[in-house]
Give the backbone structure.
Amino acid sequence: MTQLFDENGRLNSVTLLQAGPCVVTQLKDDVSDGYTAVQLGFGKAKKLAKPQAGHLKKAKAESRYIAEFRLPFSQAEAGVDQADNPTVGDTITAGIFSIGDKVEVASTSKGKGFAGTIKRHNFSRGPKTHGSHNYRAPGSIGAGYPQHVFKGQKMAGQMGNAKVTVKNLQIVFVDVEKNIIGIKGAVPGPKKGLVRVQGRQE
């Protein structure tokens, strides 16, 4: 994360992400696959297994990561010129984003390990006076009837290391030459983590 000033002189917290170059590894349509999507490859793998190498052979890529982005409609239905459609092997850079665009970001959050209810669910602690020993205990987890703990009860356990999606984030910086975009606010995941950035469908 870093800080950038906008045109009004206000300071914004910004997360910088490397947004490419991504290679189009596969195109799916309603006829052959039953839905419309574009598959992108990112990064370079040290060594590819034979199935992955065969899949990427047509695109002439050695992508380490592959992600698929569903499209709500086909290009023909949207009236898009077929000459503008991406083809397998094309390279997509950060130039597809513009300042002011709203995006949806998904990633795996940082794992915090086993955590108690105070840290995990923001429970309040008990009193520390008058002989109380209920400092950080969770308290009651159910009633006498129906004599079992309900599913979803907030208790101690694994914290973090889960898929987190943040919607309606704004792009405030784009560097096409270095394939870097700046997103206003925080993004889930650790440094050098893999993040999925997708434009919001209006």
